[in-house]
Amino acid sequence: MTKNIAVIGMQFGDEGKGKIIDFLAEKADVVARFNGGNNAGHTIKVNDETTILHLIPSGILHKGKINIIGNGLVIDPKVLLEEIEKLRNKGIKVTPDNLVVSGNAHIILEKHIKEDKEKNKHLGTTARGIGPAYTDKVARSGMRLIDYINKNNVLEKQSFSGRRKSEAFSSDLKNIKPFIKNTTLLINNLLNKNKKILFEGAQGTLLDIDFGTYPYVTSSNATVGGICTGLGIGPKKIDKVLGVAKAYTTRVGNGPLPTELKDEVGKKIQKTGNEFGATTGRPRRIGWFDALMCKYSVIVNSLDAIVLTKLDVLSGLEKIKICIGYKHKNKIIKNFSNNSEILENCEPVYEELNGWNENLDGIKNFEDLPENAKKYIKRIEELMEIPISIVSIGPERNQTLILKKEFLF
Ligand code: IMP
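Above: the input entities. Below: the structure tokens describing the complete assembly.
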């Protein structure tokens, strides 16, 4: 029996992880985030009501789940409180019983946001202060939530350069205090009690600080290893690792995107797929599915299966392409490398498949998909060399086709 499932982005974030986590959360006991901060935007649509979560795990929309914000995150206290408030205004219960925040998570200060806005424009960051907060963490000059709790120890001292001591900041932290717990102890106790845990990844493998297209990456480990360091559990506790990939590629912000479409097809996909950032509203760049990139994600994360999302967006295209190689200096490269020299100067080698015209609304089984859509899925599966277990054909919970039950709880 699958006890714990990790959900990891296989591309540049925005793969539709929010929807899949919400779908899987129904049968989970705990949903835990381990990386990033409010640079993430997980969009969940339930009965025509859209909720975008930035910091709080997507399990919050289900009753009776414990949602954990791990030590691996960086937290803007104001944003966390606003998110709690917004959910409460929608009638969703958010209390220290169903939301727990690690005291070891680092705080995003105003100076971090300012620095991100001023210095990181060339990277196209979300300007939420993420990078500078992680920089201070690694430089050992950061401030953790626990440091506020131990305020005699830290908050009253003058040693934190640029620390906002305003009353508003202090009162934000006071309001967060009831949610702060030792989440490492908590999650390990829950594991010992055989509770089912869903690990909610943010961003994607190609934005990972170590494995992504550096320096055009985020400042945390969005890959599977981030779960261990971002929550304090061992790798053997992760039973299944699911990778989420869009049926095409999108990227917000700068950095290489070998399959980028700068034509009408790209515009059509952007419009149909509503490809605008959930956090910043920026238009997302569009590209064909890049099998090299996604195969790399399969390897880096030891993926067990793939969730393919937004297949419906490709309806109505005459031809659909899959990138199966990069042509660089007259050589064909078949394995992905995050060497920016190659990624920026290569030409994608494509395989072309026939598209389909049918709208996918109302389809409940894989078998009922148009033949060419099935062929597209099967070809991706072949190239990835692991099963596709779920195909998502729309934002609603019931627009989810299950191909393989063994990767569910
Ligand atoms: P940062 O995480 O704000 O430092 O931004 C670094 C890069 O990651 C930029 O290209 C952002 O657009 C991108 N990024 C960060 N978070 C997300 C996300 O949740 N989805 C998609 N892109 C993201």
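Note for the figure: The radius of gyration is 21 Å.
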